[in-house]
Write a structure and sequence with these properties.
single chain; 268 residues; alpha/beta; TIM Barrel; eight-stranded parallel barrel; two-stranded antiparallel ribbon; 13 helices; 16% strand; disordered C terminus
Length: 268
């Protein structure tokens, strides 16, 4: 079984277990408890390059990333440094994520939050909405065509934005056909783990005008961000390098090319 198949299998098993503990009807009943919306897509479409800064404890490719780094401290540093949005890994099996991390992140900062996970069931959309997310990741390699459309429609009904992730031309075509408004180009091959930022440059030319574009994985310096912005990328999702940084707040400032007096573009 390949890495992606393992991730999908674990996600499916997790949904089955959680839905037995918390029925969908219970999640639906809690939708009215949600606090003020924090628009995710809007945060990515301001002038300049927006940064989606990620909190993750480990990954299949890197193992344990930043032992002892507290979620609240990290996301506060991201916000202070000028992040536009926050990505929170909630996959437990392979990334040591937790659904409770969404609420904890929401309490610690005012940034819009995307739940990053392997969404295989609509139940997870309700979890995201109730748990404190403003957006969800939908991976084309995980979802069949019809489910991709259905999940985007359901997410919209739940007032969630969608970041639709692609890795190649075929997946990009499917994302465009599904009506995706925010497309994430992942520079990491999910099966091999190999990262190649050229993937973004190869695919962005086929993204329709007006679509918000996010480049994901393998970005670690200001020069890369400047070049990505030059070719039309609106935002970059950065995780591991920030998690390993001794001063994540300053690193966000450096990546954004801002100083204390010029962060108003990134602040809510």
């Amino acid at each position: 079984m390949g890495i992606l198949e393992q991730l999908i299998s674990a996600a499916s098993q997790g949904v089955k277990a959680r839905s037995r503990q918390v029925p969908l009807a219970d999640l639906e009943a809690r939708l009215g408890e949600r606090d003020q919306d924090r628009p995710f897509r809007e945060a990515l479409t301001r002038p300049g390059m927006s940064l989606i800064c990620e909190y993750k404890r480990k990954s299949p490719s890197a193992g344990e990333i930043a032992p002892g780094v507290e979620l609240a401290d990290q996301v506060k540093a991201y916000e202070a440094g000028g992040a536009a949005a926050l990505s929170v890994l909630t996959d437990e099996t392979h990334f040591d994520g937790r659904l409770d991390d969404l609420a904890a992140a929401r309490a610690a900062c005012s940034l819009p939050i995307i739940r990053k996970d392997f969404v295989v069931d609509e139940y997870q959309l309700y979890e995201a909405a109730v748990g404190g997310a403003d957006a969800v990741l939908l991976i084309v390699a995980v979802l069949h065509d019809e489910r991709l459309r259905e999940f985007q429609l359901k997410a919209a009904q739940l007032d969630l934005d969608c970041l639709v992730e692609v890795h190649d031309e075929r997946e990009l075509d499917l994302a465009v056909e599904s009506g995706a408004e925010v497309i994430g180009i992942n520079n990491r091959n999910l099966d091999t783990g190999v990262v190649d930022i050229q993937t973004t440059y190869d695919l962005i030319t086929d993204v329709p005008t007006g679509t918000t574009v996010v480049s994901e994985s393998g970005i670690s310096n200001r020069e890369e961000l400047v070049e990505l912005e030059r070719v039309g990328v609106d935002a970059a999702l950065i995780g591991e390098s920030l998690m390993r940084s001794e001063d994540p707040e300053e690193m966000v400032r450096t990546l954004a090319g801002t100083s204390d007096s010029t962060t108003e573009h990134f602040l809510p």
